[in-house]
Amino acid sequence: MEDVASWRAGWREYVWGGFAGAFGETLMHPVDTLKTRIQSGGQFIVAHQGHNEVGQALRFIWSVDGVRGFYRGVVPSFIGSLVTGATYFGFIETTKDWLEYSKPSLTGPWAHFLAGAIGEGLGSVVYVPCEVIKQRMQLQGSCQSWSATMAKINKSSSSGLASYMYYTGVYQAGRSILLKEGFAGLYSGYFSTLARDVPFAGLQIMFYEGFREALEYSHEKKFLTEINITARKFSSLEELVMGGIAGGVSAFLTTPLDVIKTRLQVQGSTHRYKGWTDAAKTIWKEENIHGFFRGVVPRVVWFVPASAVTFMSFEWFRKQYHEKINDSVHECGAGLGVLTKGSVSSSPFLPRPLSSHESRQDQSSAGNA
């Protein structure tokens, strides 16, 4: 019965995580557009638009396409983030609890890293095709700017550019890529995406949980003389800050992997790079260390608020749900006169407590009672 209740609670967290992830990604999509154009390394039509720095890309997009140019590809981004956010947070919560209670020897930072990495990996099946479509639409910009740029290019001498048609939407883009490049086109850079997202997802949740545990420890140490130590409750501001820092640090550390992934996914049928290793060697040879950190500023600027909002939103959704359920159970128990200490946390029909720290404390209290 407890396994069924845990599974049901976990699916709620899949839904919360999906919407939280999609909200955070969509909010910062304009910054992601800048990052993608800068990291493309002169591929696609960006080679003829001079997007080498943040200022250049910002001025060009604003002058040619306006606000709409920054939101090109936002639909596939939302779809991919919705799925990945669901698997990420849902799998984190279910796996983390299983590791902590069934395999206590695996608890700690690596348990969080493993849960986040696997959750992100599961979502990649849907996320990668959405990422490919999103990035190509971001590089094309509006139909007007794309047509103007293509008019200046001799298509006969630019086979890579001539092979592309303008993508009017998600379905048309996906169908076009599938017909011309097959599934290999939709999943181009798949393993490089995993090489970037798996460590990023693992590091992000590891840092976030580490910050939470550090604050919980300081709280316990501060009130060590108290007879009853209540579990540390985090404010939305604290969760916002912890999520932002965790996302920013993780984004900075994995920027080289993001550059390689972007180059492989936007090259299309030109095949400038033969694979992940060849891309890494070529970038190092032609651009040195600077090439691996192209777009690091917009990437970090993008992930700090996106991660902050995502984690805060997820925790807020979960808090609201738990508070509503707990209030209902208390009212029902008070009316029947059967509610006892620890019954809320130990009931097999209720979701898990808000954190592993609170869960362990409630179980201990129930046992002593």
UniProtKB/TrEMBL annotation:
This is Mitochondrial carrier protein. Solcar repeats lie at residues 8-98, 107-214, 234-320. GO terms for biological process: transmembrane transport. Residues 346-369 are annotated as: Disordered. It comes from the Eukaryota. Its main location: membrane. Signal peptide: none annotated. It is a multi-pass membrane protein. It comes from Marchantia polymorpha. InterPro entries: MCP, MCP_dom_sf, MCP_transmembrane. It is found in: Membrane. The keyword Cytoplasm does not apply.
